[in-house]
Write a structure and sequence with these properties.
20% strand, 278 residues, hydrolase, single chain, 7 helices, TIM Barrel, two-stranded antiparallel sheet, hydrolase activity, GH
Length: 278
């Protein structure tokens, strides 16, 4: 087991490297909400068991996906017990392509104090699927925090507490020695978190905003940075993925995206193949 001092040193190194990578991204001084998704050329997908056909039994052709996209986020877990049944197969298959990738956890609190339990569940499942947090082609792990379904309605999680979100993020960062990406919406932070987006300060943001024409995602209050990834539709037709799928763009170049990958446990991670598509 690594010593406490070695873990702290590794975290400090990873944080500094990630900060430098984020700083190298294009400046965010462009007028807010100015560019359409087509202005960004580095694209990617995110998937779960829902993307495996009507019966959820059809494999995704990850090699076909990789011919058109540069990155993929794969659902790993939800709450404290659920693990996506396709996680292992999808992660293994995606890792065999040029796609830069990471697992994500859907934050689904069932008590007001289960942030650490959710983090431990996510870390265990991600590691079992082969994710290291700093391996070749691995992007930082992802926290997906949005409205949940209760009694057939989409609502703010009644048990959500900002401190538990912080505990989750800190636990995952300690486990993988890399600062997680956060997927959310500005409207969710306002409505469900009382505008307390400062808990996401320092984290790369993956923001959702659909069918918005030329409108980019709105800033998350308190987060102190613009978006790094933008999920702009859930109705894409992606070769290799059955049915409709989400589609995302990255705010930067393929080289910038590679700079975010492999920033965890490996001191000198190998770069992904130069055949990664823009």
């Amino acid at each position: 087991m690594p010593t406490t001092s070695s873990v702290r040193a590794r975290l400090a190194c990873a944080a500094a490297t990630l900060g430098a990578a984020l700083a190298s991204l294009p400046a965010t001084t462009t007028p807010a909400h100015a560019a359409p998704p087509t202005a960004y050329t580095v694209t990617g997908v995110d998937t779960s068991h829902h993307n495996h056909g009507r019966e959820e039994t059809t494999p995704i052709d990850w090699r076909r996906v990789a011919t058109n996209h540069s990155f993929a986020f794969l659902k790993a877990t939800q709450g404290t017990r659920y693990t996506d049944p396709w996680l292992q197969r999808d992660y293994t298959a995606a890792a065999g392509t040029t796609l830069l990738r990471a697992p994500y956890h859907f934050f689904d609190p069932r008590t007001t104090g289960d942030g650490a339990a959710q983090a431990r569940h996510f870390v265990a499942a991600a590691r079992a699927a082969g994710y290291q947090g700093g391996g070749k082609g691995e992007l930082p792990p992802v926290l997906d925090i949005e409205k949940v379904h209760r009694n057939h309605k989409e609502v703010c999680p009644p048990e959500l507490r900002v401190q538990q979100v912080r505990i989750f993020l800190d636990e995952v960062e300690r486990s993988f020695a890399v600062k997680p990406i956060v997927y959310t919406r500005a409207s969710f932070v306002q409505e469900c978190m009382g505008g307390r987006g400062e808990v996401f300060a320092g984290h790369p943001l993956w923001l959702a905003r659909y069918r918005s024409g030329a409108n980019e995602p709105q800033p998350v209050p308190g987060a102190g940075r613009s978006w790094t990834f933008w999920q702009h539709t859930d109705e894409a037709q992606t070769p290799g993925i059955p049915g409709r799928s989400d589609l995302n763009v990255f705010r930067g170049s393929t080289a910038d995206l590679r700079a975010l990958a492999g920033r965890g446990q490996q001191a000198q991670p190998s770069a992904p193949s130069d055949t990664t598509r823009s």
